[in-house]
Amino acid sequence: xxxxxxxxxxxTGPLHIGGVRTAxxxxxxxxxxxxxxxxxxxxxxxxxxxxxxxxxxxxxLNWCGLVPDEGxxxxxxxxxxxxxxxxxxxxxxxxxxxxxxxxxxxxxxxxELEAIRNEEAENGxxxxxxxSFTRRKMKNxxxxxGDEVKMLLENGTPxxxxxxxxxxxxxxxxxxIRGDVSFDSNELDDKVILxxxxxxxxxxxxIVDDHLMEISHVIRGEEWLSSTAHHVLMYEFFGWQRPEFxxxxxxxxxxxxxxxxxxxxxxxxxxxFPLDWHPENDESFEGFREAGFLPEALLNFLAFLGWNPxxxxxxxxxxxxIDAFSIDKIVKSGAKFDYDKAKWYNQxxxxxxxxxxxxxxxxxxNLNTSDVPFEKLSRIAGMMKERVYFYTDILRDGQYLxxxxxxxxxxxxxxxxxxxxEPFLVQIIxxxxxxxxxxxxxxxxxxxxxxxxxxxGEILPVLRITMTGTMKGxxxxxxxxxxxxxxxxARYNYLSTNLI
Length: 500
Ligand code: GLU
Description:
Strand content: 5-15%
Number of strands: 11
Radius of gyration: 32 Å
Number of helices: 21
Structural class: mainly alpha
Distance between the termini: 78 Å
Oligomer: single chain
Shape: elongated
Strand order of the largest sheet: 3-4-7
Bound molecules: glutamic acid
């Protein structure tokens, strides 16, 4: 059997990071099994449709490198891949369920349903369900006579189609992550499968499409587990073979208490969406991309939110992830979202990047606003990459590597400055060889300090602040070699005339 998996988001807003993980796991399984990764846009709920959301989803997947083999932008043999373009098709299937006695027309208006809900609530039942126990009291093709139904239909009375859940039945299936799962049919409501506007609901469209698109594995978030009971029933009603189901664990807040929500991003100061989202009249959110994440690092991090390769490796390239992936290594329990870990991953990927690639990235992202020459930019990237979590911080934190320090740690300078050392500082700067390397300089300077009987703890901090303004930063001798003798001397002169 060939593996065909789908990522089926609804364009109701920006794609949550949990959605990216779902897409990733689908992608990994498809690539591992030589299968097909499909993007299907589930846009049948017009009331929740958000302009720009579909483009956002596609751009997010592209940025991550999770490029669909079939989808709205990549036609295959099973299209269209946008449910709104498949509208007519669902009708036929809903009708088949009605004809077979597995679904029925329901004519209750929204007002009537509301009235019943209120009436029930007054009698102490706050949980009214349209189900196998209540359907006979309602206005539908089960409770009305054939003639009544015929007339209503002929009059063009609006109707929905509801699934007819059988009573006293146990609905079971085996979930690839959760094992055997059972539902008591008496707990299930008669879900609407076709709405009065002729649009299918998620449940009908989802399983019709999974069937027609020959989906082999449904891999989705845990929140869909309870709907699966309805889906399994529909597969039985249609006499279709159902796909394998795998319901992924939740992504939890950093505290482990509750599901990670879009509000948590602002609350804890980290992104929960892959890309920036700036709708015109609504809340904005920052993306992982704009925060400076490399897509490979983000994916590696996400892969481990609920899965691991079963050994102690943590850094896995896309090819290694594909190779190591299997559904049976996905865990059942929720995975805590640990932003520090995400940052750590990003840093590991920055360190692994070549300095030239990093420099190119800074140029491509227009972060090199001071037009630092490429060769120098590459050296700066190399010196800074272990000291930052984000490439966007390289030029900010390493500002003094390409222009005069923007500020000085004058407090430390005042403590360490000793006028007696002035000539020695000048002599040390004279030792900088623009074409030399940092190790040679380090060696020479340390010998010099020892020979003159000076204190490392007095000389080196002053030199460092002279060059960079701060006590933090990359290796001092590397910094001085990068700056070159003339610039080091200019910085020393500036400091001794202006700050001492
Ligand atoms: N449209 C559903 C969603 O937005 C898809 C759920 C599924 O994969 O079946 O998540």
